[in-house]
Amino acid sequence: MKNFSFHSPKNVKEAKKLSSSRSCYLAGGMTTIPSMKLRLAAYSDIIDIKKIKDLSGIKAGKTLTIGATTTHFDVSSSKQVKKSIPSLAILADGIGDPQVRNRGTIGGSIANNDPAADYPSACLALDATVHTNERKIPADKFFKRMFETALKKGELIEKIEFQIPEKSCYIKFPNPASRYALVGVYVAKLKKEVRVAITGVESCVFRCKKIEDALSNNFSASAVEGVNISSKGFNADIHASAEYRAHIIKVMAKKAVSSC
Questions:
Q1: Where is average pLDDT lowest: 85-89, 106-110, 172-176?
Q2: What one-character DSSP code corresponds to residue 134?
Q3: Which domains, ranges and CATH numbers included, belong to the chain?
Q4: What angle do CA 227, 122, 176 make, to 5 degrees?
Q5: If DSSP states are collapsed to H, E and C, what string results for 59-105?
Q6: pTM of this prediction?
Q7: Burial letters for 222-252: b for 16+ Cβ neighbours within 10 Å, e otherwise?
């Protein structure tokens, strides 16, 4: 690990002033720290945002808002989350292991945009809005490519606002070691539409329009059966082929709908 300067700002304004083209915000550090240790990433300044009080916490109303530095454990154990969007609490409880859940943050996971991360699928399925220190970004426009988002350099996620669905469920087929999703399917029936988000299958989380259309006409597991999922462009590795992932999408989608 290369040398760097460590900063612990008291508020978002101070954190923004400290940022530069060679700096990095640190929340839980679940990806940043290992990357630095392996010298896959190097920064001149590390800006620890964990102590900024305004960036943590959960608020439920017409929507569910979660602060960026709120840990996975806090999301999974929150009574407000369990009441408003139970599927989101279940998703958070299935991330990594206890150590990761107690250190990792929702904002860090979304900003990192790992191809197999769980939260990005929740953002897309629940029509979330990502609030930064500069603007509001709809989830549909936030996730760009592998490890790439709409965030500009120095822009900081402050909170994520989720729409509260009528029904929702997240089902994933996890890697037995890492708990990352080989395939993860988040189904949400909102007031005006059905949204289905898939993670672990391509280089970036995406919405499955075919399944959405089928469920919009008939919100049942049987409606998914007739959907044809092409494996073109899907990930293929030692854990699962592209064709297997295509098959598992339908399996997980049917389970999710049945569990709503």
A1: 172-176
A2: S
A3: 1-52 (3.30.43.10), 167-259 (3.30.390.50)
A4: 80
A5: EECCEEEEECCCEHHHHHHCHHHHHHCHHHHHHHHCCCCHHHHHHCE
A6: 0.95
A7: ebbeebebebeebbeeebbebebbbebbbeb
